[in-house]
Write a structure and sequence with these properties.
Layout: E1 4-7, E2 10-13, E3 18-24, E4 31-39, E5 46-51, E6 58-59, E7 67-72, E8 77-82, E9 91-99, E10 102-105, E11 109-114
């Protein structure tokens, strides 16, 4: 069974930094896209950053210049470095993966930015 395990969420003051990590179980050969989404109560889940296999990364306009996504193909891990955090970044962050054409989601990790 495919699993995505996230870690690194927490509480931070505005202007601070957090690093999220995601580990995917199983072989990475069939993984194409990996990325991070976030969701707040009453809103749709939105893309934060996406990194396709061998392709260019995509960032939401709201996080460009502050967040950096990185992927380790050998370890099947995905990180999200979040700097200059703002209260509006508060959300549950989900790791996302496309493997053999199927979508997979992590359990989510809470990020809370206090003003």
């Amino acid at each position: 069974q495919v699993q995505l395990v996230e870690s690194g969420g927490g509480l931070v003051q505005a202007g601070g930094s957090l690093r999220l990590s995601c580990a995917a179980s199983g072989s990475g050969n069939s993984i194409s896209h990996m990325g991070w989404y976030r969701q707040t109560p009453g809103k749709q889940r939105e893309l934060v950053a996406l990194i396709p296999r061998g392709g260019n990364t995509n960032y939401a306009d709201s996080v460009k210049g502050r967040f950096t996504i990185s992927r380790d193909y050998a370890k099947n891990t995905l990180d999200l470095q979040m700097n200059s955090l703002k209260p509006e970044d508060t959300a549950v962050y989900y790791c996302y993966m496309v493997r053999s054409g199927a979508n997979y989601w992590g359990q989510g990790t809470q990020v809370t930015v206090s003003s």
